Amino acid sequence: MPALVAYGVVVVYPSLSGAYYAFTDWNGGPYPSFIGGANFAELVQDERALASLRNTLVLSVAVVIGQSLLGLVLALALNTAIRSRNLLRTLFFAPMLLPPIAIGVLWQFMYSRGGPIDTVLSGIGLDALVQNWLGDSSVALWSVIVTVVWQHVGLSMVIFLAGLQGVPEELYEAASLNGAGRWRRFWSITRPMIGQATTIVLALTMIGGLKLFDQVFVMTSGGPGYATETLSLLMYREVFVLGHYGYGTAIALVLTMIVAMIAFVQISATRRGEVEA
Amino acid sequence: MSRIRYGASNIWLEIVMIAAVVAFIFPVYVMVTMAFKSSAEVAESAIALPQSLNLENFTNAWAEGELGRALANSVVVTSLSIVLLVLIGSAAAFTIVRGGRRIHGVLLMLFLLGMMIPLQLGMVPLYTLMRDLGLLQTYTSLIVFHVGSLLPITIFLYTGFLRAQSPTYEEAARVDGASQWQVYSRIAFPLLRPVTGTVIIINAINIWNDFLTPLLYLGGSDKRTLTVAIYAFRGEYATNWGMTFAGIVMAILPVLIVYFLLQKYIIKGFASGLKG
């Protein structure tokens, strides 16, 4: 089967050898030697690596929360009789299709000093909120998070909408007749019924956040300092700029472990939630 | 029920949502208006409308960014990868689902595992492999990469769809003496049309928008794709925002046109594909 060959060459072989090279001192030369866990010992001492690990986790969790909540609110609002719902859905989903690299350039300009965001804020008298959005190390990561949520919220919305449309109307009618209020109907009917959609949204968003590269690469390249350095970015730099192939793949292996762990925990946790509900 | 009646609360909701979407697409407004502004106008205001529909940025970006070339590269890479993915992916899924032996289940697990593994893990060995095979700076390297890395999602979509489909027609054809290949190409593949649409949409967006791999494999050559060309604008014309945005607008226009024409199918494709 040609599928096996292509998949083997592009995914299986490189991943396995990547996992091996993580334990070597490979610097691009022909004979890397096995050095055990030395790369990982170096990693836990490396301030930059620890910062990037922390940033990656903060970013992923914040994106998951922001994107899921906003996506759910949008889906609930568009799952009503409002007339512009199709147009609104199309527009909210649109950024999803654009190249992340273009989104990064666009938001770099949005955030620039005296750029569109600053102009709007001063225009409505909120000068106090004007910031050095990408240059201030306490703000930069949050600026990146907003960009990522902006781009992908449409996907969460669409998946939640598909889930909501699968909820039978009769359930709501029966609940209303029995005197259940709006909030009660949401909590007792909608929430458990869209459990599957929720699993998908959470898993996709979290994994997407962990692997994030393009937007950060173009917006901040990890700066200022290490304020927005992520694991993907650090790995890229170690390998393709500094030539530390072994160390770079060790970082990739850490990333792989985190992705695998979260995928596992999340899927089993949400499955359990669905059954109980 | 709210979905049936259009009452006062819906009017309020409608107004709020329209306000929300206006704020939401503000960055897109900025991008498009910037593309028409001269440097002087950009310096004056970041959000004002351009004074005239000045096309200079577009012609400059097209010529200096060699966007025609980049567009052709993106089209070649995306279309060839998609054709291969559809052919190889559907054939593999057909074999896995209708094969029925234990080995087929193992193979499926192996492919699905690929959806979990971050490509970063294999990035370096794959890069050196391509380099040693002399494939860097060729379309082949990028096409092989996309086909291999997107096969898991492709096989996932096809197997899901095939499972839900009864093999009656295929069995009938087999009774009439059709070979395995004939059953696949004449009966099974045509029936896969709806899911093939989803496969094409999801993969095309992925390939068209991919940035890091074309940067690594084709960067610096005349085979660079649109995303790499966009990135190059930021490096080479760092202060010329008008031209940068004109380049971006041209690069994303094909995607947006297709999207607005086929938006129902595209959104449905994403929702159903990812729901599994």
Automatic annotation (TrEMBL), chain B:
Q: Which residues form the ABC transmembrane type-1 domain?
A: 71-262
By its UniProt entry, which InterPro entries does this protein fall under?
Answer: MetI-like, MetI-like_sf
Highest taxon of the lineage: Bacteria
SUPFAM superfamilies annotated for this entry?
MetI-like
Swiss-Prot/TrEMBL keywords: Cell membrane, Membrane, Transmembrane, Transmembrane helix, Transport
Topology relative to the lipid bilayer, per the entry, is: Multi-pass membrane protein
Q: Where are the transmembrane segments?
A: 12-32, 70-94, 106-127, 139-162, 183-208, 241-262
Q: So what family is this one in?
A: Belongs to the binding-protein-dependent transport system permease family.
Q: What is the protein's given name?
A: Carbohydrate ABC transporter permease
Please spell out the taxonomic lineage of the organism that makes this protein. Bacteria, Bacillati, Actinomycetota, Actinomycetes, Micrococcales
